Amino acid sequence: MSNKRNRWLTILVMSVGALAFIGFSVVLPFSGAFQQSQRSGSASPSPKASASPTSDLEAQAKGYEMVLQREPDNQTALQGLVETRIQQGKLDALLEPLQKLAELNPEQPDYAVLLAQTKQRLGDPEAAAELYRSTLEKHPGSINALKGLADLLLQQERPEAAISLLQDTIKTADEANKAQPGTIDVASIQLLLGETYARQDRFEEAMAIYDQASQTNAQDFRPILGKALVLKAQGNLDQAQPLFASAAALAPAQFKDQITQLGTASPSPSPSATAENQDSEAGSEAKSQEKLEETAPIEAAPLDLPAESPEAPQPE
What we know:
By secondary structure, the protein is mainly α. Among the domains are: 1-9 and 49-105, no CATH class; 207-272. The chain is built from 15 helices and no strands. Helix 7 packs antiparallel against helix 8 (159-171). The radius of gyration is 20 Å and the shape is globular.
């Protein structure tokens, strides 16, 4: 049951170690397609013929709610209700089942992260920030909570606060990992820090942090991909292409094609573009992103890389 629940969360929560750099449209609170098999089990309502997918989804939701009236702690029904409400785009209806799942699984921070993301989407950033911070007090190495809070701070135009959050977490990693090994994944947080620098056009600092991560594990493709994306954003395609190739060679099979596509796609606007063009493009991109978030409550991220350090081929 625990393994199934973890797989469900992996599908549901945005992969936050994915190097969501310039050119990535991954600022969606829920990503990934839900597997139909996750809806199987005693809590799943029987399918009924219906004139439209909308009525089918509402029937599913009502079925889960009926189960929860009898068994309020039934996690299969709670998960199914969350999935269905996401597909319906009814984010306000997610609060109660996510709150219940978070209470039933205090050892699993991602439920609280999903709840925070929902509150943020519903226009309550203060409540979202409080949830992120309380989660990090209990789970200081939660990559998803760190990513969520850092993104929220950036949206509030507080980049230095976001950077300090990640830097301070890296500084405390040695002590935390000595007390409990594996508490904080330094490499993944370095990637988040590099992403944060890149989003502020602080490319030299981004490249430096990726170099640090690569020195720790030369077989980790993610910092190499990060450097490639930064170079591409700067218009240095000749320098970026070998790094894209290296990242693809080191990456697990499921990511190779996506990395190759990134390397061949049109380059991001050069940071040397005029301020007027940058403002215009940024405004257009922001509007497009807002439109996407409003109309697509479930969307797979363009590059769904693992949050934790991947198992890379070892040198012979």
